[in-house]
Amino acid sequence: MTVSMTGFGHAQSQYKDGRIIVEIKSVNHRFCDIQFRMPRQLMMLEEQLQTLVRKKVARGKVDVFISLEGISPSTKRTSVDRELLHHYLDEADQLEQYNLFDPRLSLQEFLFHPDIVTVEEETKMAQDCMDEIKAAVQLAVDQLFEMRLAEGKKLFEDIIQRIDMIRGLTANIERQAPKVVDYYMNRLHQRIAELLDGRYELEQERVLTETAVFADKINVEEEITRMYAHCDQFISIMEDRGAKGRKLDFLVQEMNREANTIGAKANDATLSHLVVEVKSELEKIKEQVQNIE
């Protein structure tokens, strides 16, 4: 099962006369990074909501937006420091005796003093509607996962098709490579004969040794074998469950390394063209792999 890191989910649930609205979006990321955007009074639920999201998301940058429509996230309660108020009033009485205080000042003006009256917010609502919030987040996460799964299926089909193309190109390289070796061996043998110009008798054993060494340098059988193995491993990983994006990214790098080695060893126009095609497909696969969980 292949899962993309790109997706979107939306859900809502009723609470009393209002609605809880949840939107989740995710994009590719090296790790699992989940960020919540919600009223401050709901932050006490973040850890529980993180757990819900992580059950369905192993990798990617995920933004969760929670908004309340027609719901007050908190209620306010006032508290009066009566002792401090009485102290101020006593002081005011004393000042009035010395004509240092305007007796027209009312009690209301004292109550505006921030130290006398404080406003506290009660966040009991977060606990009261916790089930509704969790339900909405769960629905949004499920929708996100389904979208990521659908996108992952498309990525799977596209990548498998490209791996098959690379396998076919590797088969063409395998057929062409021996011809290149034979060509260069014959050319080397001919070149040696031209240099000696019949003045010296060729030591066949020495010539065979030198040509064998040269043939080994341009031989790409090992690289071809590893390329086939990488293709098989790639498909095997793609069919596995769980996060696999990093493994596939590493494998693409290994396949690129084999292709570069083949191109460097076999200095042949036909092989070079085939190698370019292989690398082109690998580049497209690499772009797709960057979005796999």
TrEMBL record:
Keyword flag Hydrolase: yes
Domain Endoribonuclease YicC-like N-terminal as annotated: residue spans: 4-155
Cofactor dependency: a divalent metal cation
Pfam family, one: YicC-like_C
Phylogenetic placement of the source organism: Bacteria, Bacillati, Bacillota, Bacilli, Bacillales
GO molecular function terms listed in the Swiss-Prot or TrEMBL record: hydrolase activity; RNA endonuclease activity
Protein name, entry field: TIGR00255 family protein
Organism per entry: Alteribacillus iranensis
Keywords: Endonuclease, Hydrolase, Nuclease
Domain of life, source organism: Bacteria
Keyword Ribonucleoprotein: no
Family from the record: Belongs to the YicC/YloC family.
Limits of the Endoribonuclease YicC-like C-terminal domain: 173-293
NCBIfam families: YicC/YloC family endoribonuclease
